[in-house]
């Protein structure tokens, strides 16, 4: 019989019964296990099959496998808990996004970026070199540096030819005749790799160190904080160049050096946040109810630290995209990968030390699309990540949904 | 309704003997609790009163090891709960007692609830901490709990967040959190201090009904109206020691320790000299009677050695004060003249209930005694 308002029935608890219902399967663990198992299966299939190609001319490299693993981790322990917390809200995700179009736009952009990352291997390798198609302008624009073989409408005389854009190359081509559309998407794939792999690596590391230092305090805190301080003094770029000297250019090497050396700032943020949260009443209440330190950290301290953790992480990921573009701009990237940074670099006419490329044949302003479009994509990525970081923080805070 | 309160009747639910908690500070050891002994019987409400800093809260948090150690150190001759010693338990064993057998309610309701979770999830936290339970089972339990503490429209409010409740409702929720594990003893540390008087009265009703269900309560407060309303027995604390103990009618009717009298005077509006004139504020000594530096009746025997032994001071058998004047050689009459019951020091107390009336009849008519 259900208890009535007047005479509340108050049953005794059967602790043994509760003991038995302890769950070991959660959505997070299930997603992680399924994802890792799938990746392992495909990897084993590729290993056992004869040729170097997985399907068609798809040929995943180590970095692709690392990305897929990282994506699984992010999905299992980032997206699923986030979705779980949103589901308990009374304000629906749709309404919340409609009220904040900037966040909606940013999340669509980032989702597109990540989708390109996952679908990236299907793009295959580089398109063929077509020097005779170099410097096609985007559709609707004209170029005074016409390609040898202009596919669009051609105007002017033999010595001042002007080539107009063609739907063959809607966003134009660069000096190799690579379509800008392909370069942008390939750059987006690199950006997705950078963000997802470093997120899967940095967030657990920074959160673990910050939480342990903040909760344990004392000698543990002193040691961890001192280590973080020392680590923050080592320039990651220098370490990458040292690695570069030994192993040559590699996206994984870049991510490893920056990932290993850049989580310190977030760990410190988390630590100071944890030290604040540690003194909150609900932590004492949880302890008075018999919670262990690990439970308090997982259930109360970390969820209440997301206010600072989430925007800081998104900001750092945006910064990583920028750093990777910078390194690629300087020419220290893998030749086969197309980063937005390297695309910008190839279109500028500055002579860059240490770069194999000669001076660009044309002044940059005449072939503006080859640098402006990837620069715009880079800017959009940075803005989208920062906006999305703020949006996720607000979405996680129940005090925000006064509707 | 059948409850798990059928232990041996003769042993008290909680028995504390010589509890000491010291805290390491930059200036040496601070003896926050310095030899405290008391019992809490089954279905009884015991109030711990005293001024701020007298060690009330530390006493409560020492019982279940909530005081962070280090910097604190807790020792005791015995802390027995339901016949079993809890003082020498490991951290894990202590955790299994907290929430299930002994639960706490704290002073500030605003910070007692985690802002990130809906209240329906939080009230069942003590079950959730020890085990994972299915969501529907937990929700059913949560509805019962919210109704139990008197939250209207319980089922609808399960999905509300703490910031959507008033302070009084938040304190009810905090009590619901504590009750979720079906504890035998509820330790409430100034639960009514942060809420206004109307809400306070309703919370006290709630505490009475909790005791009616068989749960014992150890209530820390410095508000004597709260004590009068709910207490069965009173422990008066000063400087980390208990200076007077006894049934609430006896202590209120015949406050016997000079500190108790000063405390009660400070509450009432008396015509005589104020407490500042009667007493001199000084450093609290670390031995003998802790109150002697401020006590108008202090003599040489008050200093040195351990805290003075408890002497029976009035008709009630359990009413005793830790004061040398009540010993075989002492003469308590000058102290007794100062006795002011908080009950008759304010006219409004009359309306509080039968406790006030019964104690005012038992009080010697000695209000505002000038020195």
UniProtKB/TrEMBL annotation, chain A:
Annotated membrane topology: Multi-pass membrane protein
Domain spans labelled ABC transmembrane type-1: 188-389
GO biological process, one term: transmembrane transport
Keyword Membrane annotated: yes
Top-level taxon of origin: Archaea
A single GO cellular-component term on record: plasma membrane
Membrane-spanning ranges: 29-45, 65-83, 103-123, 191-215, 227-246, 252-270, 308-332, 367-385
A UniProt-annotated Pfam family: BPD_transp_1
Primary location recorded for the protein, binned into one broad class: membrane
Record localization: Cell membrane
The entry's keywords: Cell membrane, Membrane, Transmembrane, Transmembrane helix, Transport
SUPFAM superfamilies associated with the record: MetI-like
Family listed: Belongs to the binding-protein-dependent transport system permease family.
Identification of the protein by name: Peptide/nickel transport system permease protein
Automatic annotation (TrEMBL), chain B:
Signal sequence residues: none
Domain ABC transporter per the UniProt entry, residue ranges: 14-264
Species: Halorubrum xinjiangense
Listed PANTHER family: NICKEL ABC TRANSPORTER, ATP-BINDING PROTEIN (PTHR43297:SF13), OLIGOPEPTIDE TRANSPORT ATP-BINDING PROTEIN APPD (PTHR43297)
CDD domains cross-referenced by the UniProt entry: ABC_NikE_OppD_transporters
GO-annotated cellular components: plasma membrane
Chief place where the protein resides: membrane
Superkingdom in the source lineage: Archaea
Record localization: Cell membrane
Gene Ontology BP terms: peptide transport
Source organism phylogeny: Archaea, Methanobacteriati, Methanobacteriota, Stenosarchaea group, Halobacteria
Keywords, comma-separated and alphabetical: ATP-binding, Cell membrane, Ion transport, Membrane, Nucleotide-binding, Translocase, Transport
Entry EC no(s): 7.2.2.11
Membrane topology designation: Peripheral membrane protein
Membrane-spanning intervals of the chain: none
Keyword Transferase: no
Pfam families with a match to the protein in the record: ABC_tran, oligo_HPY
Record's protein name: Nickel import system ATP-binding protein NikD
Chemical reaction(s) catalysed: Ni(2+)(out) + ATP + H2O = Ni(2+)(in) + ADP + phosphate + H(+)
Quaternary context: The complex is composed of two ATP-binding proteins (NikD and NikE), two transmembrane proteins (NikB and NikC) and a solute-binding protein (NikA).
